[in-house]
Design a protein that fits this description.
The termini are far apart. Strand 8 and strand 9 form a beta hairpin. Strands 1, 2, 3, 4 and 13 form a five-stranded antiparallel sheet that branches. The chain has a five-stranded antiparallel sheet with strand order 12-5-7-6-14. With 483 residues, it is α+β, with helices and mostly antiparallel strands. It has 15 helices and 17 strands. Helix 5 crosses helix 6, helix 11 packs antiparallel against helix 12 and helix 12 packs antiparallel against helix 13. The protein has two domains: 230 residues, Alpha-Beta Complex (DNA primase, PRIM domain), CATH 3.90.920.10; 158 residues, no CATH class. The protein is globular, with a radius of gyration of 27 Å.
Length: 483
């Protein structure tokens, strides 16, 4: 759809070049040439750079959510500490991912209203058409505080923007479903439009009277993308063209998103908007409230997940430590020794070992052996200090998606099981319970309680017989307790 003549005519325009260069400041830039991307990192410094790329077949330009001192210093092997030192900030960019334009408009309108509800000022809220079927909502880094307590905000990428996105998504979800239902009039019409089964788009809740109420579940066909909020992720730059639609990614009035129509973004009709996407001239740090609300909300979600995870472990009571053969790949790799992140590794490992049945003396002894393998060991006094108030099994280690740990420390090496678990302890418990089930299957099927000696791993397990009246789930997976 994008011919060479269209590309050259459009990207030759000085007003378009100037808008693109203005947006590219402090950003890593990604170039796309129809079916392939250009080298990374790259930057744009002068308006003529845009046209030079167009002459080489450029179709679109993309920019990083992160802002850098020098984007050309960024590379894929950088550690988190190095990236924090180079990063000067980040912008909140919310990407509405939906194949239906009318639904995307409703979602964008609700996000903008929710930002206002959380006291984000008009001068900090921006919106642009993505160029195809969705919208990008932006809040510049200047609208957020430099610190939250002792935490430096610029270093909290992608954690802080992900938490804001989650907070917004969960709080507009019900109203979003209601407004789409209001637009379409029935579940049947929506089902036909999105091509999903009725049970996939309907969820049920109970009102105060105890009645079951059906509501629209939008998650299957509309998403505020939180996965793509990640280090070095790029979004389509304002005024960049889109390969599929041939339209421009046009900044629009956030108050009039419901009035937007695609023909407004045709390259022949584009006039640089009075509205700037991620404008830097903001009156104050009006994003402070929504950031703090999002952090509080994320803490409550984490606490709930912690409780749910703890419940999973109650069915298996460990009296002997689970051995290394059942450890997840990240812990096994850390045990070989680590250069950076030793204190974080210590914290994760001591809580991990405690949760898989190791006693406090066993954990301390094991950590001393681990520390001796590090190129620059921690002081033994530091380890003993950390162990002083430690209670084995009291806390879980950080979850797998905690960016400050396994990935950042370079020890995350996923296998098939890793994609199904949230915490290193889950990994070990799943493998351990599977091992116990395998042992049980080797028995002669007698229902009487029997002690099995697991010679290979130096432990004993006692298998409880099925009890009359047990639920089907328990009949298939009887309670198994190491003794």
């Amino acid at each position: 759809m994008l011919t060479k003549s269209t590309l050259l005519k459009y990207y030759k325009r000085e007003d378009i070049q100037n808008e693109i260069i203005k947006h590219a400041r402090d950003k890593e830039v990604g170039t796309r040439f129809d079916t392939f991307f250009g080298k990374r990192p790259d930057v744009l410094n002068y308006p003529r750079d845009v046209f030079d790329f167009a002459k080489r077949g450029l179709t679109s330009l993309h920019a990083s959510e992160e802002r850098w001192q020098n984007p050309l210093n960024i590379h894929s092997d950088m550690r988190r500490k190095e990236m924090n030192e180079e990063r000067i900030g980040w912008d909140l960019v919310l990407d509405i991912d939906c194949p239906f334009m009318d639904y995307s408009k409703i979602c964008a309108d609700l996000i903008i209203k929710f930002l206002r509800f959380n006291h984000v000022k008009e001068d900090a809220i921006s919106c642009k058409f993505s160029g195809n079927k969705g919208f990008h909502i932006g809040v510049p880094f200047e609208a957020f505080p430099e610190r939250v307590g002792e935490i430096i905000t610029s270093e909290q990428f992608p954690e802080f923007p992900k938490k804001i996105a989650l907070y917004i998504r969960d709080h507009i979800d019900e109203e979003l479903g209601r407004r789409i239902m209001e637009l379409e009039g029935s579940f049947g019409k929506i089902k036909e439009k999105v091509g999903l089964k009725e049970e996939e788009i309907i969820r049920y809740s109970t009102n105060p009277m105890g009645d079951k109420i059906s509501k629209l579940n939008v998650d299957k066909f509309l998403e505020i993308d939180t996965v793509l909020i990640s280090s070095r992720h790029l979004y389509r730059m304002p005024y960049s063209l889109h390969e599929k639609s041939g339209l421009a990614s046009l900044p629009i009035d956030p108050s009039k998103v419901m009035e937007f129509e695609k023909p407004m973004a045709h390259p022949d009709k584009i006039i640089p908007s009075e509205f700037t996407f991620l404008g830097r001239e903001v009156s104050d740090e009006s994003g402070t409230r929504i950031l703090k609300n999002a952090l509080d909300y994320a803490a409550k979600i984490d606490e709930k997940r912690q409780i749910e995870t703890e419940k999973q472990f109650q069915e298996v009571k460990l009296e002997n430590p689970i051995q290394e053969i059942f450890f997840p790949p990240c812990i096994k790799k850390a045990l070989l020794g680590i250069e950076d992140g030793k204190k974080r590794t210590l914290f994760a490992m001591m809580n991990y070992l405690g949760k898989v049945g190791w006693s406090k003396p066993e954990v301390e002894k094991y950590l001393m052996v681990w520390n001796s393998k590090n190129p620059e060991p921690l002081r033994e006094g530091y380890i003993r200090g950390q162990m002083h108030h430690y209670k084995a099994g009291e806390k879980l280690p950080p979850n797998c998606d905690n960016a400050a740990y396994y990935v950042d420390m370079g020890i995350c090496e996923k296998d098939m099981l890793c994609s199904h678990i949230k915490n290193p302890v889950n990994y070990t418990m799943n493998r351990w319970k599977r091992h116990l089930r395998d042992l049980k299957m080797q028995e002669d099927g007698r229902k009487k309680k029997k002690v099995i000696v697991d010679k290979e791993h130096g432990s004993e397990v006692s298998i409880e017989p099925k009890k009359e009246g047990d639920k089907e789930e328990n009949q298939q997976n009887p309670q198994i307790k190491p003794s």
